[in-house]
Amino acid sequence: MINPFQFGKVVRDKQFCNRQRELRDLAITIKSGNSLWLYSPRRLGKTSLVVNTFSHIKEVKTIYFDLFNIRDSREFATKYLNTLTHELFTWKQGVTSILKNLSGHLKMITPTVSLDTMGNPSIGIDIKSNEVSQTLESILELPQKLNYSKPICIAFDEFQEVERLDPFLKNIMRSVFQHQQNVSYIFLGSKESLMNTIFSDAKSPFFQFGEKMKLDPISNSELTAYIKSMFRETQLKIKNETIENILQLSECHPHYTQYAAYVAWGLINQKIQQDENFKQIWLSRIIESQSDAFRTIFEQLNANQRKVLYALSDIDDQSILSKETMIKYDLPPKSTVNTALNSLLHKTLILKSIGSYRFENPIFKIWINKLYD
Ligand SMILES: Nc1ncnc2c1ncn2[C@@H]1O[C@H](COP(=O)(O)OP(=O)(O)O)[C@@H](O)[C@H]1O
Ligand SMILES: [Mg+2]
User: Fold this and answer.
1) Does 126 share its domain with 147?
2) Whose CA is nearest to atom 23 of ligand 1?
3) Which of 249, 265, 242 minimizes the C-alpha distance to 367?
4) Is the overall model pTM greater than 0.70, yes or no?
5) Ligand 1: distance of its center to the CA of 68 in Å?
6) For residue 44, which atom of ligand 1 is closest to its CA?
7) 61 contacts 150 by C-beta, under 8 angstroms
8) Domain that includes residue 339, residue range
9) Among residues 260, 275, 290, which one ends one of the domains?
10) DSSP symbols for 58-118
11) Is the model's pLDDT at 209 over the cut of 90?
């Protein structure tokens, strides 16, 4: 039987747990033609949410584009043009007609068509180095110019990457997007500080462009029902206590919940009894599977960063900078603790919310804590 829990890829349909409110809110935004920026730390489910919302919308033409693996603004231009062409034209209308249509809208570039190794048509463009900005501009203008039969919504995933591609790209985007009547955008991002400079900084071209939505963990009750149903569908039984252990470990973070449930499912499928030893077996499976990666990370930390991490893994709601914590964990002076916290934040090993710090990865938290046992 195939393990029903999935991690590391977009989850769809039955694999996608609830998020009813977010699905509805996002659909309303898209259908009303508004733009939105969707923020959460990584692996909280942004891509899955957008892909699932898109799959239910018929009134609007939805297009997904990921900036993650793109090297520079030229590659962006070519890949984005290809995505638009594939989504907004049908190859049935004939290559000549598509090329003619494209050339009519794109200033100064002459697109060509070739077949890739799979036999799929792919658009090529030759961008002169002094014409990159104009080329980008005319490609970004394309969705509005094509007079598509429906409104269009385009999602840019990992949008924080836009800074790396070309410092001016976001200025060009904003100047084009603000005039488009028929096209809206969703910007997904996982680096809060970068997304804040892009969208909240009054000097940024995107200041006040679109609504904001922050994705939180999924509720405990929804995840409980989800885990139960996945087990039921695969004809295995999971005890309530095992579910509680999974959610306590994962802190309801969707990715880590899937991972912890995946390991539990594997053990239960192997007929390991859910008795008093089960939690220990399950937990060590999870931790061992990650420990090489954790060790590599740990080796790159200095003594103060290690101390601060351990303290964070051990305290509950207490502040890391409280007097008791500083004494109990033998922490260096406040300014040094702050330096360590900032570099741990920078490495995204920890996250900061409303003034308090927590681990990004709850499994790493347990690993660190056990290290000093
Ligand atoms: N609604 C959901 N239901 C179940 N699992 C989810 C859900 N959203 C995310 N996940 C889990 O988290 C992982 C990361 O999700 P993803 O959408 O790639 O997050 P992000 O785009 O925020 O990095 C998925 O592979 C899946 O294991
Ligand atoms: Mg994603």
Assistant:
1) yes
2) 43
3) 249
4) yes
5) 16
6) 22
7) yes
8) 301-371
9) 275
10) -SSEEEEEE-TT--SHHHHHHHHHHHHHHHHS-GGG-HHHHHHHHHHHSSS---EEEE-TT
11) no
